[in-house]
Amino acid sequence: METRPMLEVTNLNVSYGQSRVLFGVSLVFPANEVCVIVGRNGAGKTTLLRTIAGFLKPRPGSVTFDGQEITGWRPYKIARMGVKYVPQDKGVFSDLTVRENLELASYAMRDRDWEKVFRYFPKLRELLNRKGAQLSGGERQMLMIGRAILGKTSVLLLDEPSEGLAPTVVQDLVGTFRQLRQHASLVLVEQNLAVARELADRLYLTKEGKIVAQITDKNEIRSLAFEKEL
Amino acid sequence: MAVSDLISTVIMGFAVAAVYFLLSMSLSLCFGVMRIVSLDQFVYYSVGAYMTYLVTAHQASFWSGLLVGVAVSCTLAWAIEETLFRRLYEKGTMFSMITSYGILLAGIGVIKYIWGLVPRPVMAPITGQVALLGTTLSLYRFVVIGLSALIYVGLQLFLEKTIVGKAIRAGIEDADKTEGLGIDIYKIFTVTFLISAALSALAGGLHAPLIMVEPEMGLKIMGTAFMIVIIGGLGSIKGTAVSSLLIGQVVAFGFLLWAPGAETAPFVIMLLVFLVRPRGLFGSAYLKR
To answer: Which residues in chain A are closer than 8 Å to B174, comparing Cβ atoms?
Structure first.
């Protein structure tokens, strides 16, 4: 039996000016599942996450979170509802320290429980006074996810979290995602098919702004049989 | 050049720099956080000066005039931000530039309608003199320098130590990511806009006794203020302060040595900085455009 969708996207159409990027995209993201969206560059994966997070307005289309329509809501409201977006560029605030980055998330989400963050990423405790600009790619990713899990977090939208990271760091991240999925739904946009294969309960294939396939069969996901369709 | 002229010019340069700093900081904050060109800051500068004139003309204290100027400017700025700029934040810079230029022209028109074209004098609140190495200098100039320095320290502390200040610093780097954390970035924009208007009004009020208050005083200082922002680096308090000090001295010595040079030297410095360091002396490499 399929669990209820935590997040649902219906007939999403998004354009940048005259250039249309998403064409009638419809998806469901069930609670406590890891959904991975794969596709080539320019397939509209990042646009999809940015639209769900409220940074882009669909015309037309709708996004429903936990039964409530959140289409067109401002990004801060969507984040406070529990849908957190972790962008691709690992852009922590470079002029702010790790402590200040966490303070801002704590302030926004009214949650001072940093121990929760340190349980997943103990290294961040040692880096509290280091500026964002001085962090490695892996440390930045830890901080971004750490900020995102403060406060209510029902859905984590992760845009290419493994991009540019060393294989050992990626393995650590995969381990962290396995723990996080017990508390939240994870939606990953991922080019690294090894990560997709390890984590995905559900896999969406995107092509030229459309969803071309949905795979829920674990064996099919593990076999990477979908690779030829990309 | 006599030593007395030298000392007098240096102190005048610092006093002018103090005013430049307050005004340029307001422009720098508006562009740094909201990515808007807020030419209406020059209206708040003029309103600050005219309110100080109005209050002192009615025999009340200069300092209360300064506060009235800040209060009126902030009220005006709040109304403008809520009704106009809220609709422009997601549009290009050109929209804010044209809209704020319209507000500036309308503001000048209203000032002309109320007070006419005649320049108005404002008495300095402190008429004392200070003797320094054989030169007698107006104490008020030191007060302007001191107040501006205090505001610099206060702004630094606000941005470094308070959570709203940290959100403003985050917004300077990337407003989208700040909002993505769950922070209502429009509230941060409003706070930033009001701080900017208050700084502009203070600049106008403090500048008033050093110049004559007139309707187009905002237009006259506009070019220099923008050059200071560009030289210092967008959104940088330290950069704006250093740049103000530099341009303040250049303008003061320009007037002493060769008046046309006072007008052109800031342009030359800006071009040189552009060539060597396009993001300005202290501009951050991390600003998202």
So the answer is: 91, 93
Confidence check: pLDDT of B251 > 70: yes
Contacts of A224 (CB under 8 A, 6+ apart): A193, A197
Determine the straight-line distance between the first and last CA of chain B, rounded to whole angstroms. 47
Q: How far apart are CA B96 and CA B94, in angstroms?
A: 6
User: Which residues constitute the domain of residue A189?
Assistant: 5-229
Q: What angle do CA A174, A179, A69 make, to 5 degrees?
A: 100
The CA distance from B141 to B144, in Å, is 5
Rounded to 10 degrees, the C-alpha dihedral B182/B184/B188/B194 comes to -170
Question: Where in chain B are the domains?
Answer: 3-276
Write down the mean pLDDT value for chain B: 91
Q: Which residues of B touch A95 (CB under 8 A)?
A: 169, 173, 284, 286
Nearest residue in chain A measured CA to CA from B161: A100
Flag whether pLDDT at A161 surpasses 90. no
Out of B167, B174, B182, name the one closest to residue A79 (CB).
B182
Interface of A with B in 47-106 (CB under 8 A): 53, 55, 74-76, 79-80, 84-85, 87, 91, 93-96, 100, 103-105
Confidence of residue B279 (pLDDT cuts 50, 70, 90): confident
Q: How high is the ipTM of this complex?
A: 0.87
Confidence at A218, pLDDT banded by 50, 70, 90: confident
Q: What is the CATH number of the domain that holds A139?
A: 3.40.50.300
User: Hey, of B156, B169, B181, which one would you mutate to test binding to chain A, going by the most A CBs within 10 A of its CB?
Assistant: B181
Residue matched to tokens 């203020």: B225
Query: Per CATH, the architecture of B3-276 is what?
Result: Orthogonal Bundle (1.10)
Chain A CB contacts of B167 below 8 Å = 104, 107
- Amino acid A196: pLDDT: 82
Structural domain total, chain A: 1
Per-residue model confidence (pLDDT) at position B10 = 92
Q: Averaged over B21-40, what is the pLDDT? A: 91
Q: How confident is the model at residue B287, as a pLDDT?
A: 57
Q: Which among B163, B166, B182 has the least Cβ separation from residue A76?
A: B182
pLDDT in tens, B160-198: 999 999 999 898 888 899 999 999 999 999 999 999 999
The answer to whether the CB atoms of B180 and A53 lie below 8 A apart is yes
Q: Give A80's contacts in chain B (Cβ within 8 Å).
A: 182
Q: Which helix (H) or strand (E) holds A83?
A: strand A83-86
